[in-house]
Write a structure and sequence with these properties.
The protein is mainly alpha-helical and 232 residues long. The protein contains 13 helices and no strands. The structure holds a DNA duplex (13 and 12 nucleotides).
DNA sequence: ACCCAGGGTCATA
DNA sequence: TATGACCATGGG
């Protein structure tokens, strides 16, 4: 909650945005497709999710009614490339049942963000990050999505300790970035992009890395904590 | 032959 | 409440 945390969070956003430019997330034609992607991308590379979505599209299964009507076994086969296909088939099926029972997008979008989050979290297979993906990228709510990359980046920049719970990090960023939905959208997208490319684009850079096993991690945390000037 | 990816749930201590 | 096992494909 401190002012220096807020400042670093804002500075980091500026740095990322300056380096990579706007990302215009989420890749997906409709809000419902975004929701499917949010479940399918759980602990999974996006390239594999795209293959699964293409399969669903070819099978004309990009709407909730189709997904609940086909056999779960067939659904699992369609989403096979995204991994965990049995688990995710069950999650998609349950999510779509819930979605239809709630009255679809029009009914859901009338709900306040906090209420909608609670309802999303009540669905089996929808955890905090998936719920916030849906809130931000399908319902355009001012919500920050905390993922593994966010934790690593903020920890290595000395912004957080690393053992904070999900919601405290989310609220911290939301308060630091008290501007608009667009910034929330871009910030998460930029962090993910940075996680993908930081160690590949500039493999010898000691101040830009958030990949899991980076040999420059210690240099990053030490320098940023002491000097107080963190550059991406 | 590893390691990792835009997590979440469940069982155990 | 806090770890650990489990789910599983595909790219580097």
């Amino acid at each position: 909650m401190s002012a220096r945390q807020h400042k670093k969070i804002q500075q980091t956003y500026q740095d990322l945005h300056h380096r990579y430019g706007p990302q215009h997330w989420w890749p997906g034609d409709t809000p419902f497709e975004v929701m499917l992607g949010a479940v399918l991308t759980q602990n999974t590379a996006w390239a594999n999710v795209e293959k699964a979505i293409i399969n669903l599209k070819q099978a004309h299964c990009l709407d909730p009614e189709s997904i609940v009507s086909i056999p779960i076994k067939r659904l699992a086969k369609l989403i096979r490339p995204s991994g965990y296909f049995n688990v995710k088939a069950a999650r998609l099926s349950r999510y779509c049942q819930w979605y239809i029972a709630q009255g679809g997008h029009e009914k859901l979008k009338a709900l306040k963000t906090e209420i909608l989050r609670k309802r999303l979290l009540s669905v089996h297979g929808i955890g905090p990050e998936t719920a916030d993906d849906i809130l931000l990228y399908a319902f355009h709510r001012k919500v920050f999505v905390v993922d593994a990359y966010t934790r690593r980046l903020f920890q290595r920049l000395g912004i957080i300790g690393g053992d904070e719970d999900y919601d405290s990090i989310r609220v911290l960023v939301e308060q630091a970035m008290s501007r608009n939905v667009k910034d929330m959208n871009e910030y998460h997208a930029l962090i993910v992009l940075h996680g993908k490319y930081s160690c590949k684009v500039r493999p010898l850079c000691a101040d830009c890395c958030i990949s899991r096993r980076c040999q420059y991690v210690k240099m990053v945390t030490h320098e940023s904590n002491k000097a107080g000037e963190t550059r991406l």
